[in-house]
Design goal:
The complex is a heterodimer of chains A (258) and B (510). By secondary structure, chain A is an alpha/beta fold. Chain A has a domain of 179 residues: P-loop containing nucleotide triphosphate hydrolases (Rossmann fold), CATH 3.40.50.300. Helix content of chain A is 43%, strand content 24%. Chain A contains ten helices and ten strands. In chain A, helix 5 packs across helix 6. Chain B has three domains: 234 residues, MetI-like fold (Orthogonal Bundle); 165 residues, 3-Layer(aba) Sandwich (D-Maltodextrin-Binding Protein, domain 2); 92 residues, D-Maltodextrin-Binding Protein, domain 2 (3-Layer(aba) Sandwich), CATH 3.40.190. Chain B has 21 helices and ten strands. With 510 residues, chain B is of the alpha/beta class. Chain B starts with a helix and ends with a helix. In chain B, 46% of the residues are buried. The longest helix of chain B is centred in the first third of the chain and has 38 residues. In chain B, helix 1 packs across helix 4, helix 2 crosses helix 4 and helix 12 packs across helix 13. The chains are: A alpha/beta (258), B alpha/beta (510). Chains A and B meet through helix 2 and helix 4 of A and helix 5 and helix 6 of B.
Chain lengths: 258, 510
């Protein structure tokens, strides 16, 4: 479905992404995992040409994306932004309806779609006439997801969409998103630096570091057969954190006994 | 007051025409330019810098500068056009700056989101950047609105009627009610227009349809009114009136009204007044045909227009020189000499003159280093001043330029000791000032003459004949008394002029 081949991005002498290749199957959710500066967001943006690659190509259903006008390509791909990026001068409903509007959908179809989407992302339809600023962070990002889905894309790109949310809200949105992507059979690339999030959502995880894809595999592959020290250290973080939590619970129990 | 308010509809309409058209043009230039500057990087700095430079030019000077610029381009250089061009330029900066700032201020994340949802560059501009920048752009338009309404009062000296006519003539004839009416009307208009722009903004941002419609409706009505009143004279096939010009001082207001009254009475032709023109603007206006006749003074034309450095000339010699210059050089006519001179005269308070024993300008020489001299804003830059100073060896402690209408007051309150008064000014007597004799003839003659444009000779010889009958009609004493009635007794120049025309007609009746 998405075939990235040798994607490279250079700014002057600095190489931000170096020879990135990946094949995402239809309906699959691949998480790109890495720290800041690893090149994961740049890679994601090269897929819908928000950033033009210096070298390499992306094929979507076998079609080279370089052959499409960028705005038409982007209308076919849902994109959820890290900073949400809702338009503050539009209502919730208008934000969701943006891409259908650009595609020239009839008004009734768009209106029905907005209602359907608000329901899908588990938002009260009464919010459709509110301004984004009147919503909580979690609600805003639900609108962001709904906007990305509006024109019925088969491919979704998400750039650390839940990074700024509190842990409880984040988990709820992750679960919502899992239900949605299963229901719609979305082909998804999801960027995050959060190990737990990656393990929760991914069919496959690609670990990125310094602009390179270090290892690509199922969560289980990565946990059991890390390709190198960096992946190993990364994969052991959830276990170390779990150990800390265990120790705390144990400590509290010991105190109570004495 | 009733006479003042009777002028309000025409002044306010003219002011509205200037303001609305200038604002439309400013916004029409600045918003597209600002958008272009936000897209084309190299355009931003030069366009903002240019607009900034225009802004630093004092507004009166900017408007006045349009006169020679438009004349050089062979366009209408007196009246509506120079005012519109100047005001438009003035309105450009705030709108341009705010358009650039407003667009630059849009969150980059939202630009990226706009691209991400599939907008083209044009859609990104129209659907995201401009709506988000709009409050800032509107703030710029509101600033421009208030500025342009205020500065439009300065259109009067370049020959465009505005609420400034109240202010300029009020200042010169010491009619404070007129100044007040002009200021209050301009302020009221500024508040009204600013309020309408604000209402449009609120209507758009908060989506109050009713409020938006009401505000847009009001603006549309104002524009329609301005457009219709502006176009009406062009559509109507009315006879073009004989336009009588006046510079901005009392004597000129009276004489222009008197000439207009006389021409109407003698020829039955309609007339119009174009008053408060800048001194040089008046001459140019006759040259270009915007004005048909006005009163000037031989010494002024001799020095300003003919550029004669040698200002010592006999009265007759100068009159002949000026006549040749007007007729041969410009196709104008020296229609009549009115019979009085209005020249500069150094004057001091009578008791002061008594105390110091001053009779001639020469007597000032010994005392000058302890005295301050006040003069109108032109005087110190005119050739007479060095001539007087050098002839009599005067070296004053201080030279202060001020508005002519305040000069007499300054002498009376001892702010200054000597002023360069005008010989026909009634206030010389009113303030008990003594004219010091120019016994060495340093100050050139200033015979009042009627300067008529080429059109009168070609199309209206009857008007020229009527003007010629004013030859010698006003002596210095009569002019002084008429000036005094306006300056000190607060009579309307038009009233004084009407009385004069009445007397003159009776005198000339067969």
């Amino acid at each position: 479905m998405i075939q990235a081949d040798g994607l490279t991005k250079r700014y002057g002498d600095a190489t931000v992404v170096d020879g990135f290749s990946l094949n995402v199957k239809a309906g699959e959710l691949v998480v790109l995992l890495g720290g800041s500066g690893s090149g994961k967001t740049t890679t994601l943006k090269m897929i819908n040409r928000l950033i033009e690659p210096t070298a390499g190509s992306v094929r979507l259903d076998g079609v080279d994306t370089a052959e499409l006008p960028p705005h038409e390509l982007r209308r076919r791909i849902g994109y959820v932004f890290q900073r949400i990026g809702l338009f503050p001068h539009m209502t919730v409903g208008e934000n969701v309806a943006v891409t259908p509007g650009l595609l020239g959908w009839p008004l009734e179809r768009t209106a029905a779609r907005v209602d359907e989407l608000l329901e899908l992302v588990e938002l009260d339809p009464a919010l459709r006439d509110r301004r984004p600023s009147e919503l909580s962070g979690g609600q805003q990002q639900r609108v962001g997801v709904a906007r990305a889905l509006a024109a019925e894309p088969r491919v979704m790109l998400l750039d650390e969409p839940f990074g700024a949310l509190d842990p409880v809200t984040r988990e709820r949105l992750q679960q919502s998103f899992l239900r949605i992507r299963t229901r719609l059979a979305l082909t998804t690339v999801f960027v995050t630096h959060d190990m737990t999030e990656a393990l929760t959502l991914a069919d496959r995880i690609g670990v990125m570091h310094d602009g390179r894809l270090l290892q690509l595999g199922t969560p289980r592959d990565l946990l059991t057969r890390p390709a190198d020290d960096y992946v190993d250290r990364l994969m052991s973080t959830p276990r170390r954190q779990a150990a800390v939590v265990d120790a705390l619970i144990g400590g509290t129990t010991a105190e109570a006994r004495s | 007051m009733t006479e003042l308010l009777a002028l309000l509809p025409s002044y306010l309409t003219a002011h509205l025409q200037l303001t609305l058209l200038a604002l439309l043009l400013s916004a029409g230039i600045s918003v597209p330019l600002g958008i272009a500057a936000s897209r084309i990087t190299w355009l931003e700095q030069p366009s903002l810098a240019l607009a900034g430079i225009i802004q630093t030019v004092p507004s009166l000077a900017l408007l006045a500068a349009m006169v020679p610029v438009l004349a050089a381009l062979d366009l209408q250089s007196i009246g509506f056009l120079p005012a519109i061009v100047g005001l438009t330029l003035y309105g450009v900066l705030p709108v341009l700056r705010n358009t650039v700032t407003g667009i630059a201020g849009v969150d980059p994340a939202l630009r990226e989101a706009a691209r991400g949802v599939g907008m083209t560059a044009r859609q990104q501009l129209l659907l995201v950047e401009l709506p988000l920048a709009m409050p800032v752009i509107v703030a710029g338009i509101r600033t421009a609105t208030v500025w342009v309404v205020g500065i439009a009062t300065l259109s009067t000296p370049v020959g465009a009627t505005s609420l400034g006519n109240y202010i300029f003539s009020g200042l010169q004839t010491r009619n404070y009610a007129a100044i007040l009416v002009g200021c209050v009307a301009a302020a009221g208009l500024a508040l009204l227009l600013d309020g309408l722009v604000r209402a449009i903004e609120v209507g758009l941002v908060r989506r109050r349809r009713g409020r938006l419609a009401a505000a847009l409706g009001a603006v549309a009505v104002l524009y329609a009114y301005a457009g219709i009143t502006l176009a009406a004279p062009l559509l109507g096939d009315r006879e073009r009136p004989i336009v009588v010009g006046a510079k901005s001082f009392t004597e000129q207001y009276i004489l222009s009204a008197a000439i207009a009254g006389w021409v109407e009475r003698e020829t039955g032709r309609p007339t119009a007044l174009l008053q408060s023109l800048g001194s040089l603007v008046a001459f140019d206006a006759v040259d270009t045909g915007e004005v048909d006749v006005y009163v000037d003074y031989t010494g002024t034309i001799w020095a300003n227009e003919m550029g004669r450095a040698q200002i010592r000339a006999g009265r007759a010699e100068m009159l002949d020189g000026v006549r040749d210059f007007l007729e041969d050089g410009h196709g104008m006519t020296l229609a009549a000499t009115l019979g009085f001179e209005n020249t500069y005269a150094l004057t001091v308070r009578a008791e002061h003159a008594e105390r110091l024993g001053l009779r001639t300008i020469g007597d000032l020489a010994d005392h000058a280093p302890r005295l301050a001299i006040g003069a109108d804003v032109e005087f110190f830059a005119r050739p007479e001043w060095p001539a007087v100073r050098d002839t009599y060896g005067l070296d004053f402690r201080e030279e202060r330029a001020m508005d002519a209408s305040l000069m007499y007051q300054a002498a009376a309150t001892e702010e200054v000791d000597v002023i360069s008064a005008y010989t026909t000014d009634g206030r010389i007597a009113a303030y008990d000032l003594r004219v010091l004799e120019d016994d060495r003839g340093a100050i050139p003659p200033y015979d009042a003459i009627l300067v008529a444009g080429a059109r009168l000779a070609a199309e209206a010889p009857d008007v020229l004949d009527a003007l010629a009958r004013l030859e010698g009609a006003i002596d210095a004493e009569r002019m002084r008394s008429m000036n005094l009635r306006v300056d000190e007794r607060g009579e309307d120049p038009a009233t004084v002029a009407a009385a004069f025309v009445e007397t003159l007609s009776n005198d000339r009746a067969p």
